[in-house]
Amino acid sequence: MGKVFDVAIVGGGVIGSSIAYQLAKSGKKVVILEKSSLACQASSAAAGMLAAQAEIEQDGPFFQLALKSQSMFPLIASELLEYTGIDIEFVNKGMLKIAETEEMAAALKKQVAFQRSWDSSIQWLDSKELQHMESNLAPTIVGAMYLPNDGHVQPAKLSLAFAKAAAHFGAEIRENTEVVSFVYENGRIAGVKTSEEEIHCEQVVVASGAWAAKILRETGMDLTIYPVKGECFSVKPEKPLINTTIFSDKRCYFVPKRNGEVYIGATVVENTFENNVTAGGIATLIERAMKIVPQITNAKWERVWSGIRPQTGDGIPYIGEHPVWSGLFVAAGHFRNGILLSPLTGIVVAQLLNGSLQDNQFLTAFRLDRKREMVY
Ligand SMILES: Cc1cc2nc3c(=O)[nH]c(=O)nc-3n(C[C@H](O)[C@H](O)[C@H](O)COP(=O)(O)OP(=O)(O)OC[C@H]3O[C@@H](n4cnc5c(N)ncnc54)[C@H](O)[C@@H]3O)c2cc1C
Question: Among 13, 113, 125, 274, which lies 20 to 30 A Cα-Cα from 175?
Fold first, then answer.
């Protein structure tokens, strides 16, 4: 059988779709194979924060990947609007990472000092300054790291826009198509098998999020990628309660969306693929949320949802080629930051496949055969 596609991408979440977009734009003949529907898993459950500085607290390749990817959103937003007509609802009104105790305040002040070496607009706000900025925050909040340049997007729209932009450049999208195995030929990967057929191609990218480890096992690769469920809810207050994203280390954040909805997340339930919302999970979240923004009590209830984050053994994603089977690539394990990391992941994976990656060293930290004990 002749080669039908240059590249087959396994998984139609934000990572697979971003890679497909960049590859299709570079002239590759691409197919996205998605077992259910586009963006049906983590990529539509996310809050959409682009929280490089709030989530990552030390310098290294992961932090640099996050910062660079974050800086690409204004351009990606306008590109995707141009090619697809989809507005990814990029909002750039900043974030407050709050301290609820004096101890947390001391730690956060050190973070401010570190983060200012990358962005001098980042500053510490004391409780009085905080109240001036966000009057609905509980007065007990001690202070906050203010990140004026932080933003967020509508994650499902971002993911679908990447896929639609890929289609604009000729990519084919096959939903309800589960990849069950690979095609091997002359010591390299030559395609994938679905339950219906074999699809031949030059290169395959596994971008199937929390499900990536399972399919890779037959290739002799035992990657540590495991599921971490997150539950969220949203409210729609009559008048805006907050303007900036509010982020607490105590597993609670508020993201005020453009349509007036406030997303509140998220629980952390390890090692389950059960994508359900529990009363206990939401009760814990509401309790935390009311301590931070008490007025949330009066806001109109909107909805609940959950999603499965793809976590890795050392907390950073796998991005690279299979050490044994050439032609097979992986981009998975973006855990809590896949939305943030999607633009740059798409670009570096496309460059890797095209052989045009300038700085291969940049990807060393993310390679599939890295040592678990390495710290990034
Ligand atoms: C509650 C919650 C809040 C979050 N908040 C944020 C946030 O604010 N900011 C941020 O940056 N990130 C956030 N994240 C993380 C982010 O959602 C993920 O990192 C990102 O969506 C991962 O994208 P992905 O494409 O790798 O995985 P997914 O979106 O899970 O996509 C994988 C796709 O692969 C498909 N698939 C699986 N196996 C196969 C197969 N064998 N064949 C074909 N298809 C297959 C699945 O059906 C799925 O559609 C959050 C996640 C959750 C759950």
Answer: 274
| Superfamily of domain 91-151+226-312, CATH level 4 | D-Amino Acid Oxidase, subunit A, domain 2 (3.30.9.10)
User: Mind listing the pLDDT tens digit for each residue in 256-296?
Assistant: 999 999 999 999 999 999 999 999 999 999 999 999 999 99
Q: Characterize 335-362 residue by residue with b for buried, 16 or more Cβ atoms within 10 angstroms of its Cβ, and e for exposed.
A: bbbbbbbbbbbbbbbbbbbbeebeeeeb
Nearest ligand 1 atom, CA 178: 42
- Beta bridge partner(s), residue 263: 234, 255
Nearest residue by C-alpha to atom 3 in ligand 1: 46
Q: How many CB atoms lie within 10 A of CB 148?
A: 14
CA dist., res. 212 & res. 207, Å (int): 7
Give residue for tokens 């855990």.
335
Q: Which residues in the chain show pLDDT less than 70? A: 1-3, 372-376
Domain boundaries, the chain: 5-83+155-223+314-366, 91-151+226-312
Give the CATH number of domain 5-83+155-223+314-366: 3.50.50.60
Is the whole model's pTM more than 0.85, yes or no? Answer: yes
| Number of alpha carbons in the 13 Å side-chain half-sphere of residue 355 | 3
The DSSP result for 188-234, as a single string, is EEEEEEESS-EEEEEEEEE--GGGHHHHHGGGT----EEEEEEEEEE
